[in-house]
Amino acid sequence: xxxxxxxxxxPQPIRxxxxxxxxxxxxxxxxxxxxxxxxTLQLLADPKGETERLAEKYGPVFRTRAFGGxxxxxxxxxANEFVLFDQAKTFxxxxxWGLILGRLFPRGLMLLDFDEHRLHRKALSVAFKTGPxxxxxxxxxxxxxxxxxxxxxxxxxxxxYPAVKQLTLDLAAVSFLGDNIGGNVEDVKxxxxxxxxxxxxxxxxxxxxxxxxxxxxxxxFMIDFFGGQIDxxxxxxxxxxFSHLCKATTDDGSLLTRQEIIDHMSFLMMAAHDTLxxxxxxxxxxxxxxxxxxxxxxxxxxxxxxxxxxPLPYERLDExxxxxxxxxxxxxxxxPVPSMPRCAVRDTEFAGFxxxxxxxxxxxxxxxHNMPDVWVDPEVFDPMRFxxxxxxxxxxxxxxxFGGGAHMCLGLNFAYMQAKCFAHRLLSTARVTVAPGxxxxxxxxxxxxxxDGLQVRIEPLG
Length: 462
Description:
Layout: H1 3-6, H2 22-25, H3 40-45, H4 47-58, E1 61-66, E2 69-74, H5 77-85, E3 91-92, H6 93-101, H7 114-124, H8 130-153, E4 157-159, H9 160-177, H10 185-199, H11 211-227, H12 230-235, H13 241-247, H14 258-289, H15 291-302, H16 321-333, E5 340-344, E6 348-350, E7 353-355, E8 360-363, H17 365-368, H18 388-391, H19 412-427, E9 430-433, E10 442-443, E11 449-450, E12 455-460
Parallel strand pairs: 2-8
Antiparallel strand pairs: 1-2, 3-5, 4-12, 5-8, 6-7, 9-12, 10-11
């Protein structure tokens, strides 16, 4: 990639790739669905069930029309590897995610492709090395302790999802922006809430009084907020993620531009907030509904021998193997990103089906994570699936909650660290239960959440 592109201060428009006609995709089995709407309503109402029904009828490669466009779904571990590993650099994430995130989170890491993506990913990776991660863990621990104290003060019965959504937003603000964020913290959080809500809103133009208009206003606020702090962060010695990005350099030693820092910070905070909210919610649900596993994790945490109020040391994170396995099993059963879109930039072929340039394709972690020929009794919560022995012969793209290949989530280890820190503080002091027979109804798209907020009881250990 040329240095000229890296010095650009404003996002460049995404080059349009013409979509193939229906006749060019007619050889792929599938359905056009209802007039105008296609299969949109069915996929919104039950994305997992509708995908399974379409796969049963048409096979693991099928064509649908939904959400204003036509796409081809490729199912299974081999499809995940073909699209996500993408050795031939055939599938564009920019054009896959651009329709959803491009207006509000332009040129975030997930919206870059190929050599440009590699260059930026390498520059951003400095913020996820051991030194910074230790600093983030200390900030996360303090925030989790304060958050749990607030939960206890409000009584044992609670709606977990909205509570943890506020907590993860607070944690992202502190660990990503540092303690010197000042009095703008509530404005920052509100701007991000508006931006995320707008990204999945039905109305895609910022018309007056719409969620998209609020989201665009939120982005403008964040541009001013981040942009106004970059120089001071470069001069300072902050250990938060924002400060690290302000000092990050590319291969030629150049600092990231102001606009690049703003775009990456906006995207990383969004990704850390919403997907972790969903992941921690499913994690707690499965622990509450499987008290035997909750106790196993509690005993593992106790085996560390930490004093009552002692933080979880960064050097001992790897000792919480059962905790990590349980978190992975929660991610398997309810992956935080149910579908991953891409767009073919050149003609290609999979399983005997030709995919012309411009074809929008998607892989489906929810489907793959529930395939009975890959996962025995997939509806059963069983963290032992992720033991070394059980994982040894499994396809490496059978488990893809964080994507794969070049676009594997850069914050994967941050997510595991936060889950372990949260489990340590919660399970060492409290027991989480749900009412007998209670099963929440999950809304899986665009990011999974329990429709009723997840009703749990958190009681101190006797």
